[in-house]
Specification:
By secondary structure, this protein is mainly alpha-helical. Helix content is about 90%, strand content about 0%. The protein is built from four helices and no strands. The longest helix has about 80 residues, at about 30-110. The mean pLDDT is about 90.
């Protein structure tokens, strides 16, 4: 830019000088040729300056576009890293929740609290459907529920059997007492009957 200004200043001085020479000797062809060369050099300098300015503007534009692209790439990478971090955090929280629920279900099973274990297992089935641990706990719960149902059925059967045996013993005792009372009546021992 400095060089272009210096050349423009020199061209202006040269034109001024040649203009004075033209006034002094308007018929001198050499003065006209020099003036034409100065004007051509001035136009060439102007074109060169314009081209250099356009090239600088183009380079600046390319540099800005490159910087913008770099910034966009950086933001994209940051967003992706943040998304992955959030996804990882959510996955870890989900796995932690599943682990806690598995432990509670196991604790309920160990304590024989089958209804509570079943509720917790229903929650687990939503959190981790088809997970091996969930399926294993479901099978264990089903086994324990069936065992508990069998124990209840066995206890009822025993109670019913004991009630029948008591009924039989009671009837046998009543029949014996009635038979004894009849025998005493037949012997006319009414006070004892």
């Amino acid at each position: 830019l400095e060089r272009a200004l210096l050349i423009a200043l020199q061209d202006a001085q040269a034109l001024e000088t040649i203009g004075r020479a033209s006034i002094l000797d308007p018929q001198n062809k050499e003065v006209h040729v020099i003036e034409a060369r100065i004007r051509a050099a001035q136009e060439d300098s102007h074109r060169r300056t314009t081209r250099e300015r356009q090239e600088r503007e183009w380079e600046d534009r390319l540099r800005r576009e490159d910087l913008l692209k770099q910034e966009l790439d950086r933001l994209k990478i940051e967003r992706e890293a943040k998304r992955q971090h959030e996804e990882s955090r959510r996955r870890m929280a989900h796995e932690q929740k599943i682990g806690q629920s598995l432990n509670r279900t196991r604790d309920f099973l160990a304590a024989g609290q089958l209804d509570e274990a079943q509720c917790e297992l229903a929650f687990l089935s939503v959190l981790a459907p088809g997970a091996a641990d969930v399926l294993a706990l479901d099978a264990e719960l089903t086994r324990r529920q069936q065992a508990a149902e069998q124990a209840i059925q066995e206890a009822r059967r025993k109670q019913q059997e004991e009630a029948r045996e008591r009924d039989i013993l009671l009837r046998t005792e009543i029949e014996r007492c009635v038979a004894e009372a009849e025998e005493l009546r037949n012997q006319e021992r009414f006070d004892e009957a």
